[in-house]
Design a protein that fits this description.
By secondary structure, the chain is an alpha/beta fold. It has helices at residues 15-26, 33-43, 46-56, 63-74, 92-104, 119-133, 140-163, 176-189; strands at residues 3-8, 30-32, 82-86, 111-116, 167-171. It is globular, with a radius of gyration of 16 Å. Its EC number is 2.7.4.3. Keywords: ATP-binding, Cytoplasm, Kinase, Nucleotide biosynthesis, Nucleotide-binding, Transferase.
Length: 195
């Protein structure tokens, strides 16, 4: 069975953790733009150097560069039968880039998992993560900036996917297992069995 999924939610919603769980349950790769970028920065690749200078300036990686990276990743053999996108598309321009790519392969997204978490909960989780993991990019100011960008740029993509009838809003508050169970139930209702 194939499944082409997107998981969306504000920073701190748990989408990275839930995405990995869903990907493993379905046997599909999780394509996280953040992970791809961090790996390139760590390895000192040409892309990594470009990305590092952009991120160090506090900016987001441009749409064209992000889309090229995702297209390259989705063209890998392990993504032929499905994938779960995390962190892409993050705005309306990237939705168009993804649509063009998938249409060229006669494919489309099967479902969009939208984790709904109140802003205060996201802030609390991110502050705790910064303390636990010592993540330099999780300063209070950086967190507020990223949440603002999500609300302005990423949340509107849910309206586009909503008109296609593929958005499942999932309550992202609760234990890890409770949220995972809600996601699996929504996917089951679409005929995508994650168990």
């Amino acid at each position: 069975m194939t499944a082409r999924l997107l998981i969306v939610g504000p920073q701190g919603s748990g989408k990275g953790t839930q995405g990995v769980r869903v990907g493993e349950a379905l046997g599909i790769p999780v394509v996280s733009t953040g992970d791809v970028f961090r790996a390139n920065v760590k390895d000192g690749t040409e892309l990594g150097l470009q990305v590092k200078s952009i991120i160090d300036a506090g900016d987001l990686v441009p749409d064209e560069l992000t889309s090229a990276v995702v297209r390259d990743r989705l063209a890998q053999p392990d993504a032929a039968e499905g994938f779960l996108l995390d962190g892409y598309p993050r705005n309306l321009a990237q939705v168009m880039h993804l649509d063009e790519f998938l249409e060229g392969r006669d494919e489309s997204l099967d479902a969009v998992i939208a984790l709904v978490v109140p802003r205060e909960e996201s802030l609390s989780r991110l502050t705790a993560r910064a303390a636990e993991q010592g993540r330099a990019d999780d300063t209070e100011e950086a967190i507020a900036t990223r949440l603002g960008i999500y609300e302005r740029e990423t949340a509107p993509i849910l309206e586009v996917y909503g008109t296609r009838g593929i958005v499942d809003e999932i309550d992202g508050v609760g234990s890890l297992d409770e949220v995972t169970a809600r996601i699996y139930a929504a996917l089951d209702a679409r005929g995508i069995s994650a168990r």
